[in-house]
Amino acid sequence: MNNAKINLIAADMGYGHQRAAYPLMDIAKDNQIVSINNYDGVPEWEQKYWENSLKSYEQISRLKKIPLLGSLVFSVMDAFQKIDPFYPKRDLSKPTTQEKFFYRVVKKGLGKDLVEKLNKTNLPFLTTFFVAAYFAEAQKYNGDIYCVICDTDASRSWANLDSDDTRVIYLLPSEKVRERFLMYGVPEKNLIVTGFPLPKENIGENKEILKADLAVRLSLLDTKGVYFEKYSSLIKNYLPEKTVTRPLTITYAVGGAGAQKEIGLVILRNLKDKIVAGNLAVNLVAGNRPEIKKYFEDGIKELNLDTNINIKVIFDADKVGYFKKFNQALRSSDILWTKPSELSFYCALGLPIIMSQPVGSQEDFNHEWLINLGAGIDSYDPEHVEEWLPDLLESGRLARAAMDGFLNAESMGTYNIEKLFDK
What we know:
By secondary structure, the chain is α/β, with parallel strands linked by helices. Helices cover about 45% and strands about 15% of the residues. It is built from 17 helices and 12 strands. It has a 6-stranded parallel beta sheet. It starts with 5 loop residues before the first strand and ends with a helix.
């Protein structure tokens, strides 16, 4: 029986906002994520507005790879969501152009219907999308309002227009982001550092799942024992001993807009011999996009490979179904290769992140965060992965990245957030 403690609100646009909401479904009303752009009864004009916004974003994201024109168009869009440099610390409370744009739509009634429906529940409003926090406050939601920050740093747009006089309580991934929101003028009493919400099925209440999976992973990532020789006492202090019974596994995840899908097939083509020999397995993550699934499956056939032998395409038409399959696949994954999106936080699961090119200002900051943490490694040319991947494995660099993420990134965000509502 669901013990509903919150209304869980996200936006069905890409994966980031719903991926952050998914781990909190256990405490959500009806165990459901309410999507502001496609819930039951959403006003037609609001649905059209969000459809057009998403279509424009995806088109521009795909345009980015076109020389000159594509980069120019993307840079103009990205300027609206740009994150200012952290230093020097200063007053950044002035609202952004992007924020003022959204507030004009809120004044026209964006979110009013949803707020009126949810007001009947008498539950706190928790969202992973900043525009929902805007309209929850503006349209007079009658309960507490919480907003989960979905990147390692955040633009001014994540704080409401009147940042110094807001009801919104921000749930932050780190102390640095707390300092950022103080620069945005948000009162200290509205800021709680919880960590990013990660899937509980990959962690366990005492990190028992996480530690068991990482113990297996380390032995596959440290092929020459270089890292273990230096840090055996550290490893033994945190992790149990585990027997390895599977091949090294790479999971390649495509973003919600489908950008960089080509890299998945480049990985297969250049590591084909290892896959066929049974020394390597690859998961290609198509998310809930059937066209990406077809692209991967067609490419696998062209390479004369088989999805039944060390290759899986992770897909589900339903996003929640996709998240479940993805999280399950991560338990037996050793390397997560992806853009530095919200998946950057998954380094806390002891997964080294091989980073493909960032797309947008927030991903630039996620990239910097992973590098500083030691948990992320910039991808070399995928066309030569068969040369540089063995070097990373033999040097122990990937094993070090796995442990750095486990030790230095917060993995208990979901549990910390749930505790806030244990009243």
